[in-house]
Write a structure and sequence with these properties.
- By secondary structure, the protein is α/β, with parallel strands linked by helices.
- It has two domains: 31-232, TIM Barrel (Alpha-Beta Barrel); 249-374, Lyase, Ornithine Decarboxylase, Chain A, domain 1 (Beta Barrel).
- 30% of the residues lie in helices and 24% in strands.
- It has helices at residues 14-27, 38-42, 46-55, 66-74, 92-97, 107-120, 144-157, 178-197, 211-216, 348-355, 359-364, and strands at residues 8-12, 32-36, 60-65, 81-85, 100-104, 124-129, 160-166, 205-209, 224-225, 249-254, 257-261, 266-267, 273-274, 279-284, 301-304, 307-312, 320-325, 334-338, 372-374.
- It has a nine-stranded mixed beta sheet with strand order 11-14-17-16-15-18-10-1-19. Strands 2-3-4-5-6-7-8-9 form an eight-stranded parallel β-barrel, surrounded by six helices. Strands 12-13 form a two-stranded antiparallel ribbon.
- Helix 7 (144-157) links the parallel strand 6 and strand 7 (160-166).
- Helix 7 packs parallel to helix 8.
């Protein structure tokens, strides 16, 4: 048996990411693919994931924050990058010089971007965001004309190039939800207004499709799809199946301590679990500081010794316990918290279901103490 060189590691299969991106492209022939690799590539590692996505057929990348986009540029990634959450005081000038495309959903942000472009002597490529019903970022339709007009003024000045028109779904992962068609109608209205005003054309990319919309809503694919979760092999609509996606991350650890304890032994903080017989306990050196939720106790399972065992006792900051009963266990034995399920291990979806959350939270929560190992 081969052991990780550290107490735990997240093994990332880059070939799975490449295959997933290619599969997503098959669902949207003729559309560009921009993979959202925010949050350190959904916990898989920003720079390594970027390369795999581009090799899989993505032509663009998306990040939530400017610092993520600038990290990619510093690593030598030259593909177009869109960054969409910008707060006052951020390095707009550097982003523009580095060719990072920016998003604006308010007139004030257009002004800030135009001013930064003016100071650099460069043209900022801008995507205008319409709030079609998520009530998060973007301009509501009543404010949309003012946003478009201000961007067109910047384009006439030569500080801005309108590169995209976009929005984001609220409920694309809930098949048949009435908000889906309502948002598509609102997006079409926003696009039609912008195009009539002069902010359209073949060079302006229309995009609204996240992972769920890419896989289930052909009418939402427009000029570009914008998947995130699905690129990492996790279904955005699990009740409809896995769509042929391959989970890319396997989280493993090795047993730090194995010991026999008598019946009646309280295990970990609060003694939430008490042994009902003499048994073997195993200490796993991962805890909530590493992304194992504290409420995993008695809910989540791991694979060890060819079978599944539940987490017992309170999950601690750096460790948790498993009960092996009379099965053998030795220091250094490898356990698998989750993977693609091919060896009988739990999947990320199983972990999410058992903990009452979504797969996004599980993979993005894996902490920085856990090294990513690429295979």
């Amino acid at each position: 048996m081969s052991f990780p060189m550290t107490p735990a590691e997240a093994r990332v299969d880059l070939s799975a990411i490449r295959a997933n991106v290619a599969l997503l492209g098959e669902h949207a022939p003729g559309a560009e693919i921009m993979v959202a690799i925010k949050a350190d590539g959904y916990g898989h590692g920003l720079v390594a994931v970027a390369g795999a996505c581009l090799e899989g057929g993505a032509t663009r990348l998306g990040t939530a924050y400017l610092r993520e986009a600038l990290e990619l540029r510093a690593a030598g990634v030259t593909a177009p990058i869109l960054s969409w959450i910008i707060t006052p005081g951020e390095p707009l000038e550097e982003a523009i010089v580095q060719g990072v495309e920016l998003s604006a959903g308010a007139v004030g942000m257009v002004d800030a971007i135009a001013g930064a472009a003016r100071r650099t002597g460069r043209v900022a490529r801008l995507h205008l965001e319409a709030d079609t019903g998520l009530s998060r970022g973007g301009a509501v339709l009543a404010a949309w004309p003012a946003l478009v007009d201000r961007a067109l003024a910047g384009q006439a000045e030569g500080t801005i190039e309108i590169a995209g028109l976009w929005s984001h779904f609220a409920c694309a992962d809930i098949p048949g939800h009435p908000s889906i068609e309502a948002q598509l109608t609102a997006f079409d209205e926003a696009v039609a207004f912008a195009e009539k005003a002069g902010a359209g054309g073949s060079q302006v990319i229309r995009h609204i499709a996240n992972s769920a919309a890419t896989l289930t809503l052909p009418q939402a694919r427009y000029d570009m799809i914008r998947p995130g979760l699905a690129a990492f092999g996790l279904s955005p609509v699990p009740e409809l199946g896995d769509f042929g996606l391959r989970p890319a991350m396997t989280l493993v650890a090795r047993i730090a301590l194995a010991k026999r304890v008598p019946a009646g032994s309280g295990v970990s903080y609060g003694h939430l679990y008490v042994t009902d017989r003499e048994t073997t306990l195993g200490l796993v050196p991962l805890g909530y500081a590493d992304g194992v939720p504290r409420h995993s106790t008695g809910r989540a399972e791991v694979l060890v010794g060819g079978g599944r065992r539940p987490i017992v006792g309170r999950v601690c900051m750096d460790q948790f316990m498993i009960d092996m009963e009379d099965e053998s266990l030795t220091e250094g034995d490898e356990i698998v918290l989750f993977g693609d399920g091919s060896q009988g291990e739990p999947t990320v979806q199983e972990w999410a279901d058992s903990l009452g959350t979504i797969t996004h939270e599980i993979v993005t929560g894996i902490g920085s103490r856990v090294p990513r190992v690429y295979r």
